[in-house]
Amino acid sequence: MAAIIELQRISKHYSKTIIGVDDVSLDVEDGEFVTLLGPSGCGKSTLLRMIGGFEAPTHGMIRLAGQDVTHVPPYRRDVNMVFQDYALFPHMTVGENIAYGLKIQGRSRAQARDMAVDALALVGLPDKIDQKPAQLSGGQRQRVALARAIVRRPKVLLLDEPLSALDARLRDQMRIEMKHLHEKVGITFIMVTHDQEEALTMSDRVVVMEKGRVAQDGRPQDLYDQPASPYVANFIGTTNFVAGSLTGRSPAGTRIASAAGDFTATADLALPQGAEVTLGFRPEKVRLLAEGETAANVVPGRIAEVIYYGLGLRTTVELAGGTQVHVDCLLPDSLARSAVPQPGAPVRLGIEPHNVFVFAGRVAA
Amino acid sequence: MSHKPSSSFVADTALTTFVCLLMAFLYVPIWVLIAFSFSSSRSLTWPIPGFTLDWYRKLFANADLLTAVGNSFYVATFASLLALAVGIPAAMALHRFNFWGKTLFRRLILLPITLPGIVTGISMLNMFRLFGFNPSLETVIIGHATALIGVVVTQVFARLQRLPKSLEEASSDLGAPPLHTFLHITLPNIRSAVFGAGLLSFVLSFDEIPVTFFLTGRDNTLPMYIYSTMRRGVTPEINAVGTLIVLASLILIIVSVLLSRDRSPR
């Protein structure tokens, strides 16, 4: 498969000191669903708007299907966008909104209407063609916006925080529907979101951005299981951090010493002995060990707090050295509740080496 | 803090009285004007001695007055259209682009509204003389338009500010070049402001005297004509003209409300 979008060293400098996007290179394969993920102000929306042609990069080149489109205006780019506020034309009916781009392409009124009907059927709104956007609910407007953007069969569909205006229940439903839509139409999707769950569930590939740069680019599982930095580890899911230093290597992996105890990690960093490192592990990848149970890494601690959240428990455990970490445990049935740990009780945490992340340097966790 | 019922009664009564007085202050003169326009007596006495339509008959036989009405329509129509033709693009430029001297540009456009009509009148008269134009209804149109551009820019600019930028972007995204976007997306969505500004411009131009006074040649507009006949005192004929203008304004207001109602509540 060929790259449909090629970003070559794209930068957007608003002034000497204000930099929106900083030297980003990215290829998107034809038919891929790629998500740009990051907090507000990380440059993800600016990057999307540059692909759409609404803003021009100050450096670098954008190629669409092999052609340089860096300075091509939006109306001559074969790319369509779903806007965050949907941007439906309020003075037109749903059908007119969808047919708008088709008429500009020179299609006849009848043909445009037929295509609008098909597009509405595709997004599950077949009976709303003659209504005005103001008569629709938020979820329906969003479907119309989708239909309007895909009806021209663009090479790439851009989605700017498409679900942020919907309520939680509808958002969950639309996630699945949009993923199915992507599979059905086969168009490349590039989505921007600050919601990590959205990014993980919908996309083939996630590009995590930080301060205008790409922090990590990979499949959702890879980002979750092998975050490249503490930033990614903490942005996608939750991660506990423990400061330590590298003490040596053994066949089992890297040995790390910390105030909380010694750890073995499968991950191997090209760092000299004695280097300062940060350990990371996820709350759900830690076990509270029962009496007599053991694990590759056993860390003693004391329960500080227990929070019940239905699906399970989130306990806060204080380790030797004062670091507090979270441990999630599921409650398989109501019987297990009698075994619920109490604050103040001593516990032992079991962590497998392949679940320990090692990052160079120290972070303020 | 205990409110006695009587204190709220007093407050309500005071408010009602105030509103009634205000309404009387605003509208009694107009009712008086309308009443006298049907009075059978030439002198203004109350109650009116009898009912007549003579003044309306005379009015429609008065060639000078009808010409003046025609002139006023001509001036007001073209002054408004000129103001819209210049004002809408100016408002778009102010809204859309950031350019050097933008603030100055905006102030300069709005300045003629605040300039006294006398100043505009004298200065434009001098300018037209300098360039060898003779005062005429056309020079009046230009004179009026200078101040009206400010009215149009203010109204249209305010509406544009409320229009989401994404609408124009979406249009562009769907393949529409800028002019197509302007005609099919921007203009329909600022229609109410354009219409309101045009109407306001028309009314302002219609009863304008100072600028007209300096810039017109031999042609009279309606306010000028009324003003000149006033030297002989208020005639019932003038009252009849006034009544017709009130009627026309009323129709304009109703039409404008009907047309400018945004069908899509935002």
UniProtKB/TrEMBL annotation, chain A:
Keywords: ATP-binding, Cell membrane, Membrane, Nucleotide-binding, Translocase, Transport. It comes from the Bacteria. Its EC number is 7.6.2.11. GO terms for molecular function: ABC-type polyamine transporter activity; ATP binding; ATP hydrolysis activity. It catalyses: ATP + H2O + polyamine-[polyamine-binding protein]Side 1 = ADP + phosphate + polyamineSide 2 + [polyamine-binding protein]Side 1. InterPro entries: AAA+_ATPase, ABC_SmlMolc_Importer, ABC_transporter-like_ATP-bd, ABC_transporter-like_CS, Mo/tungstate-bd_C_term_dom, P-loop_NTPase, PotA-like, Transp-assoc_OB_typ2. SMART domains: AAA. The keyword Cytoplasm does not apply. One of its GO terms (cellular component) is ATP-binding cassette (ABC) transporter complex. Residues 5-236 form the ABC transporter domain. It is an enzyme of class 7 (translocase). Gene3D superfamilies: 2.40.50.100, P-loop containing nucleotide triphosphate hydrolases. The complex is composed of two ATP-binding proteins (PotA), two transmembrane proteins (PotB and PotC) and a solute-binding protein (PotD). Belongs to the ABC transporter superfamily. Spermidine/putrescine importer (TC 3.A.1.11.1) family. Part of the ABC transporter complex PotABCD involved in spermidine/putrescine import. Responsible for energy coupling to the transport system. PANTHER family: SPERMIDINE/PUTRESCINE IMPORT ATP-BINDING PROTEIN POTA, SPERMIDINE_PUTRESCINE IMPORT ATP-BINDING PROTEIN POTA. This is Spermidine/putrescine import ATP-binding protein PotA. It comes from Gemmobacter aquatilis.
TrEMBL record, chain B:
Keywords: Cell membrane, Membrane, Transmembrane, Transmembrane helix, Transport. It is found in: Cell membrane. The keyword Transcription regulation does not apply. Its main location: membrane. The keyword Metal-binding does not apply. One of its GO terms (biological process) is transmembrane transport. The chain crosses the membrane at residues 12-38, 73-95, 107-128, 140-158, 193-215, 238-259. This is Spermidine/putrescine transport system permease protein. It comes from Gemmobacter aquatilis.
